[in-house]
Amino acid sequence: MKQTFLSFLFLILSIVVFSQADEIMEIRKLYKETQDNKSTYKKLTQDDFENSSEGGELTAFKDSKEVRLIKAKYYGHMGQSESEYYYLNNKICFIFRKDFSYNMPPTQPDYDDNKTTLKESRYYFWGGKMIRWITPDGKYMDTKSIEFVEKSAEQLEWASELLEMVN
Q1: pTM for the full model?
Q2: Fewest Cβ atoms closer than 10 Å to its Cβ: which of 40, 52, 60, 156?
């Protein structure tokens, strides 16, 4: 009985793991397809002064039907962020975010571009849910952690707002 239960548990866990691996592969295919076809998409750029202290810019890439990619660049006093939001059927699938931190404001004499640090994060979504978050240090966040749940809600909401802004 115990061996049957363990076999069943292993089977269920394998399905979940393989299922997520398949979803990640589909997201990576979408990313590559979008990058490969980006030059054929209609490109629309607009300023966004509402969501950053120093302003920002949104660039949407649309195929014949929908937005496939939004690039968002925001400037701040001590850094900037650059994010790419990949969509399919008006649902977010992947976010690649880069955060640059300056050693001091660029207007200061001791500002040194070589001292700017970069942190990258990756967020994967499937079926309207975040399924993976890779932190700047390469850590895979536990999908059951409170931090993961909060970050998921935050990213889903922002991706939806961005889509509304460019449509």
Answers
A1: 0.86
A2: 40
**Residue 107: left if φ>0, alpha if ψ -120 to 50, beta else—which one?**
alpha
The residues spanned by each domain of the chain are: 2-166
Alpha carbon distances (Å) from 69 to 49, 64, 136, 160 = 20, 13, 22, 12
How many Cβ atoms are within 10 Å of 123's Cβ, its own excluded?
Answer: 24
Look-up of token digits 């970050």: 151
The residues, ordered by sequence, that sit 6+ positions from 128 with a Cβ below 8 Å of its Cβ are 91, 156
Which pLDDT tens digit goes with each residue over 63-104? Answer: 999 999 999 999 998 999 999 999 999 999 999 999 999 999
Report the C-alpha dihedral over residues 73, 74, 75, 81, rounded to 10 degrees. Answer: -70
Two structure tokens written together for 165: 């802004």
Residue showing tokens 């993976």: 132
**Residue pointed to by tokens 């909401």:** 157
Are 34 and 66 in contact, with CB atoms under 8 Å apart?
no
Tens digits of residue pLDDT in 16-29: 444 778 999 999 99
Residue 148 is encoded by which pair of tokens?
């993961």
